[in-house]
Amino acid sequence: MIAVSQQPRAAPVVQRDYVSFSAISTYQQCPLRYYFRYIEGLEEPFVSASLALGGAVHSAVEFHLNELMAGKSPPDHDTLLDVFWDEWKSRAETAEIRFGKKDDLDSIAKTADRIIAAFRDSDIARPTGNIIGVEEELRSQLIPGMPDILGRVDLIAESDQALTITDLKTARTRWSAEQAERSGEQLMLYAALAKDLVPGKPIRLEFAVVTKAAKPNVDTLPVTFNQKRVDRTMSVMQRVWQSIHEGHFYPSPSPMSCPSCPFRSPCDAWSG
After folding, report:
1. What secondary structure does DSSP assign to 65-125, as a single string?
2. Among 161, 166, 153, 160, which Cα is nearest to 127's?
3. CA–CA dist 42, 3 (Å, integer)
4. SS3 for 157?
5. Mean pLDDT (whole number) for 140-167
6. Domain match, 149 and 110 both
7. In b/e form, how buried is each residue of 72-106, taking b as 16+ CB within 10 angstroms?
8. What is the pLDDT of residues 46-67, one digit of tens each?
């Protein structure tokens, strides 16, 4: 392993035999951040409270859906809050949780309580059809010359009409239908990975968007599958992967991303 103050080697050895959409997105956001996370494997010394909140909400929803898939009754409010806080504490043991200017542990607790209540009242808490996968890993070599594409799907449910793939998001504000459609590339890749699960059955794609607000909403927003967009996404991923293997790592300064980046110190030490 080289020191972070030195320039990354020209042809890094990538240890994984798969690649995810989120990893490719990380490279597109900042190639040097990709290097620190996926090549050097640096630990993230801190995480924002907003991200920690989203991860803990995901854990509570995952627990709820797993209970339903096992044929059990829906967990009550307090049980889901316990799952939320277990995940929050687990995250706090591995990295510092940094609060925003308007956040503290009390405000997080109130937000979590409201989100859990909104989720339990939402349609996504009672999926149509049979749940056949929760946080399901799907992988396939979709793109020639690349490792397997790996996707972790929040929810897969089968009904008589279709196989429905749902991706859970947490957001500060409500999404519009147009925003859901614009953000659909990852869901469309999931559809390509899931096409052989139930051959011949149509696949429906949707986001379940939970707003982290004073009055949380849980909106289910459909996404239209478009093969041309899938082909374009795979072409982009192929070119990004080529850049990774050619060792093109450099910082991409951003007033939006840099202040919350956990790799600011090694980035500042990187000599170029």
Report:
1. HHHHHTTPPPP-HHHHHHHHHHHHHHHHHHSEEEP-TT--HHHHHHHHHHHHHHHHTSGGG
2. 166
3. 11
4. strand
5. 94
6. no
7. eeebeeeebbebbbebbeebeeeeebbeeeebeee
8. 999 999 999 999 999 999 999 9
Band of residue 16 on the pLDDT scale cut at 50, 70, 90: confident
How far is Cα of residue 177 from the mean position of the Cα atoms in its chain? 19
- Nearest in space to 244 (alpha carbons), one of 44, 42, 30, 3: 30
Residue 191: CATH number of its domain: 3.90.320.10
* φ and ψ of 43, to 5 deg: -75, 145
The last residue of one of the domains, among 61, 93, 124, is 124
Which residue in 171, 183, 178 sits closest to 211, CA to CA? 171
220: tokens are 């289910």
Q: Which residue has the tokens 């209540």?
A: 117
Structure tokens at 56: 């803990």
Amino acid found at 4: V
- For residue 17, what pLDDT band results from cuts at 50, 70 and 90? confident
